[in-house]
Amino acid sequence: MKDFIKYVLATFVGLLLFLVVFVIFGVMSLVGMVASGEATKNVKENSVLVVNLSGVMEERASENVFGQFTGNAFNNLGLEETLSAIKKAKANENIKGIYIECGALSADMAQIQELRDQLLDFKKSGKWIVAYGDIYTQGAYYVSTTANKLYVNPQGSIDWHGIGVEPIFVKDLLAKFGIKMQVIKVGKYKSATEMFTGSEMSEANREQTQRYVDGLWANVCKGVSESRKISVEKLNQLADNSLVTADAQTLVKEKMVDGLRYAEQVKAEVKKMLEVEDDEDICQLSVADMVNVKDESERGDDEIAVYYAYGDIVQTSVGGSLSNTTAIVGADVCRDLEKLAKDDDVKAVVIRVNSGGGSAYASEQIWHQVELLRKEKPVVVSMGGKAASGGYYMSCNANYIFAEPTTLTGSIGIFGIVPDNSELLTQKLGLKFDAVKTNRNSLFGTSSRPMNDEEIGYLTASIGRGYELFRKRVADGRKMTVDQVEAIAQGHVFTGEDALKIKLVDELGGLDKAVAKAAQLAKAKSYYTRNYPEQTDFWDQLMNETSGSYLDGKMRAALGVLYEPVMMLQNVNNSDRLQARLPYWINVK
Questions:
Q1: Residue 348, beta-bridge partner list
Q2: CA Rg, the chain, in Å?
Q3: Which among 243, 226, 261, 249 has a CA at the least distance from the CA of 149?
């Protein structure tokens, strides 16, 4: 009895201590957020916005409370927050210029393009941009070529090498474990399943991939050529000769940079531009600081809602899934869009889509909700790095569609996938199976045996119906015939630039253009924007999803290039068998 009381008291004390630490940490965080907000309401004269291009670029930054609590947070950059900060800096007369700190930036090409375009727009105000980096990754360098002055460390480098795609094929790996993926697909170019069924790219997939990377690289070279006054031919020559291994003096000689400097030397130069004394500090504002700075360029009474939808498309949130933090959950999106349809203050909705697809069922449900939303108010889609397959499905019936030139879109096609684990389970693990069933196909979809011909026939028919519906949705949304859609379907992937030519999108441009178009369609002469879904607050993160986003970051760091394929496998396993997905992922680093 004595020991029992001792254990109970020890447990009670432990819980009490945890509660005290929990409350203290929460109060400190809330006070910090309030203090931060108060500190950045007013911008001091002669200030500089510092844009840090190091880390993983996401559509919206997510504060990882769990990671901060453990002292191991990941550096995730929010495109939304960065674009907004640059836009505010342009309009704020107290901000004189932008200082870009470059490092290892990982982002998709459309995100990089939109960031670069926003910086070019900033320069139209007559304000300056200075960029410095110890090491420039290719994407960071492309953005930084907008600068009036571009510097690199005397021992630094620029990773200028061109763009390549290296798909991973896991068929033989799975075979070693006795696993075989049974795949049925519609579309000559529908290549998302090739990793499970082959050991090299099909000719059709190679053809479309080559076209995409060539178009993407041509866009990069064109931009750098115009900014740095270097011929495209010379830029390709430098990429072929592995510029990353060259000494820094070569970078100056080839006009890739304006000079070699150490960080303090560049900051001294910025002080001169600001006419600040050497012993005075520069008034610096980070992107996070700018969140609470008033946007002088945005005024009005009408609300234009900007709804962010990015990640794999799934129908419902999967408990314990590491990918839920960056998923388009169909049930949630439909509920949110229904609320926006009923909100009289919202005059139009811009849906920002950055997704390579996922569940065909969830894509159809979102399409239906967009159709209902359109009956109440204008809907404009702004495509990010990818809005392909399921991502295009959910976008195709918008009133107007914008894409970046380097957006990956199209991929109109569907596939089904069912794992056959029979060899793993029976031969390698020694398991035996028996069955009792009421009907012939009661065990349809089991992974303990391969599908029979009848089951394959059922799945093939289901996929065929899904493909027909996909084509019809596109035809209706884009005012085309089904035959016209078929000519550009078959799972074919297009750049935004090519998609414009075949009428899959209406115009090239980023989020700002999409918002302006939405306001025009809604006949809103003065307006402001509000972002949805609302970001989770401190307590929601701490109680619900912090560990998930923290582990997601850990997984991303550990798996590297394998992260996306692993997440795809997880989501396929957790969702329906019919998928509308992109065949590959491309990040520019």
A1: 304
A2: 26
A3: 261
Please, what are the domains in the chain? Answer: 42-161+242-292 (3.90.226.10), 302-419+455-581 (3.90.226.10)
Say what the pLDDT of residue 584 is: 54
Residue (of 244, 192, 200, 311) closest to 556 by Cα position: 311
* Interval 320-375: pLDDT, tens: 444 445 789 999 999 999 999 999 999 999 999 999 999 999 999 999 999 999 99
DSSP letter (8 states) at residue 28: H
Query: Per DSSP, what are the bridge partners of residue 286?
Result: 50
Give the position of tokens 């474990």. Answer: 177
Q: What is the DSSP letter of 200?
A: S
User: 572, 390, 381, 372: which is closest to 466 by C-alpha?
Assistant: 390
Query: Tokens 């005024």 — which residue?
Result: 299
CB 351 within 8 A of CB 309: yes
β partners of residue 333: none
What is the H or E stretch that residue 97 is in?
A: strand 95-106
Tokens of 359: 């569940």
Please count the CA atoms within 13 angstroms of the CA of 31 that sit on its side-chain side.
6
Measured from the Cβ of residue 560, the count of other Cβ atoms closer than 10 Å reads 8
**Mean pLDDT value across residues 91-116:** 94
Where do runs of H (alpha helix) occur along 343-428?
360-374, 390-393, 422
Using CA atoms, how far apart are residues 533 and 545, in angstroms rounded to an integer?
15
Q: Is 302 exposed, middle or buried (0-12, 13-18, 19+ CB in 10 A)?
A: middle
DSSP state of 323: T
CA angle 418, 424, 429 (to 5 degrees): 145
**Angle at CA of residue 577, ends 574 and 579, nearest 5°:** 95
Q: Burial-class residue 31 by CB neighbours within 10 Å (0-12, 13-18, 19+).
A: exposed
Closest CA to 560 of 533, 589, 540: 589
Q: Which residues contact 88 (CB under 8 A, 6 or more apart)?
A: 95, 290, 293, 294, 295, 296, 297
Q: What is the pTM of this model?
A: 0.84
- First CA to last CA across the chain, in angstroms? 63
Distance CA 544, CA 23 (A): 16
Report yes or no: 420 and 180 within 8 Å, Cβ to Cβ.
yes
What's the pLDDT band for 72 if we cut at 50, 70, 90?
very low
Question: What tokens were used for 60?
Answer: 């919206």
Report how far residue 379's alpha carbon sits from residue 373's, in angstroms, rounded to the nearest whole number: 7
What lies within 8 Å, CB to CB, of 383 at 6+ separation is 110, 353, 354, 391, 395, 401, 402, 403, 404, 407, 409, 496, 505
Strand order in the sheet with 357-359: 180-186, 414-420, 578-581, 357-359, 312-314, 327-329
Distance CA 360, CA 413 (A): 10
Q: Which residues are designated catalytic?
A: 190, 389
Q: How far is CA 354 from the centre of its chain?
A: 5
